[in-house]
Specification:
The protein is mainly beta and 117 residues long. It is built from one helix and five strands.
């Protein structure tokens, strides 16, 4: 039986011969410092794979004096056409020429620091 996740202290994992863990012993080396280095596992918020991006289109503000609230639409990104800026700008969502606000679904997942960077 293969077990994933946090293992109790007295349990040794049995990895299949087709996995990297079978050939690398020890597979996990605990690091108590907070230093960011290659091979380090950390938690990151990452977008789901194979999804089509959505674009957040700012329409403006309902109240001309209120900058904390904005009217917007979320639509699928189509082609290379970017929206124009709103008639009444919103301070929290500035519009710059040639830029867009994209919206993705994401999840907190473990990530490995790339050894090539």
């Amino acid at each position: 039986m293969i077990t994933f996740g946090n293992l109790p202290h007295a349990v040794s994992p049995n990895y299949p011969k087709e996995s990297l863990q079978f050939y690398c012993d020890p597979w996990w080396i605990r690091a108590d410092d907070q230093q960011l280095r290659r091979g380090r596992l950390l938690w990151s918020i990452l977008p789901h794979v194979d999804q089509h991006p959505n674009i957040l289109i700012v329409k403006g503000r309902s109240e001309a004096t209120e900058h904390r609230l904005a009217d917007f639409e979320i639509q699928p990104l189509q082609g290379n056409r970017l929206p124009v800026g709103p008639d009444l700008p919103v301070a929290g969502l500035p519009h710059y020429a040639g830029e867009a606000h994209l919206v993705y679904r994401a999840k907190r997942r473990p990530a490995l620091v790339d050894p090539t960077s």
